[in-house]
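Question thread 4412

I'm putting together a teaching handout and wanted feedback from people who do this every day. The idea is simple: show students a protein as raw sequence, then show them the structure tokens that encode its fold, then repeat with a second protein so they can compare. Below is the first pair exactly as I plan to print it.
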Amino acid sequence: MLTVASDIEVLARFGRALADPIRCRLLLALREAPAYPSDLADALGISRTRLSNHLACLRDCGLVVTVPDGRRTRYELADERLGHAIDDLRAAVVAVAADRTCVDADEKGCC
């Protein structure tokens, strides 16, 4: 049972990161392999500015890290266990409620 405030804060931070579809797509892409921002922007079909904002959020949440690579910067998951956690979470949610859609929290106050 979670009783430590820091445990709750960590889970809430992870939840906020997953609350945005673009950040979910980024985490799924980085689960596959580290990548450069320009490649991620192209793969996701979003502007580099928009991508940068989402990567900054994921960095601030502690989910991704930057790795200098010459004159470029590569992004990767902060810990390989995050990839496993994402896989496990996705499998659990699909197993429990594959046919559900989550109403936006602003609309209904859930999720």
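The second pair follows. I'd like the answer to focus on this one:
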Amino acid sequence: MESNFVILTAADDWTPYLERFSGLDVYYSREYAMMFAEMEPGVAEAAYYEDEETRIFYPYIKREIPLFAGAGYDIVTPYGYGGPHLEGNDDSIVPFYEKFRAYCLSQRIVTETVRLHPVLGNERYLDRVLDVGYIRKTTGVKLGRPYEEVRRDYSSMTDRNIKKAEKLGLECVVGGPEDLDRFLELYVETMDRNDALDLYYFDREYFVRQMTPTPLCESRLLFVLHEGQYIAGVILMLGQRFAHYHLGASSTAHLHLRPNNLLFDRMVREALAHGSEVLHLGGGYREDDGLFAFKASFTGGHHYRYHIGKNIYDRELYEQLTERARAIGPLNEGYFPLYRGIVTA
């Protein structure tokens, strides 16, 4: 058969294409891409490719380049993990990118930034067509086995902290839409405590949309209660194969009760009941930091490698935009694309 290459917009129905795959993760739906396209801002698109042996699906966000209106566009994967998902022959990534490159050049797309999927390990074929660089480890709970066996992977300290939390009367419950404001209050407190960047302060509408089921994801809101008070919460995303810890929140005044230990254990139970293969917990802010160590205390050394892929489609325009940005102010030389890396006071 001849290869088939299609670009889908946010106005198109992606469902017939999604149904052709067996392992698309939660990050690949139209709804998810549209949600984060509004935050970038940009527009959601997806590329679909098919040949005799292979199918590829790739959602991304097409953004106008800031400060230089009309100069062109760049593309980035939605928040989280993604990149081209391939089922079939890995070699097909080359003809897919030949067609995708031609499309990008026709649309004046200057660069591409791809947050690769650690659990899927799509860097194994994308390093042929992207400049792929390792960022840091992530970690996940290997499921597909009895809970008692999974729990043996917990560190001894984590196991003790779960028992301590239970002894103190903490309990986990599944929340509903009526509990979103409780979670949002805890989430804002957590972001404030961690001096988070503005981009992590999602508004209420984001949480409403995140909790709305998509063809690829069911999000679940979990809470820890102490004496009737909501003291910690998490959004768990349940997909076709994998579950993901998405966003967590906790009350500063109750951290000494170790609610997060109980919360993460409940995520394991929920993911097991859903039939997930892996509960992916993500990584830390830096390699092997305290956040990563906490997550890894549940996973028994089941780690993954997170990479970012980069492409420059129009080198001449890239250099021109970079020089124009440099004239505005100093640049963060480690940022990509560099023309977006103007350092602000």
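Top answer:
Good format. For the second protein you could add a caption like this: The chain has two domains: 4-129, 139-305. The longest helix spans residues 259-274.
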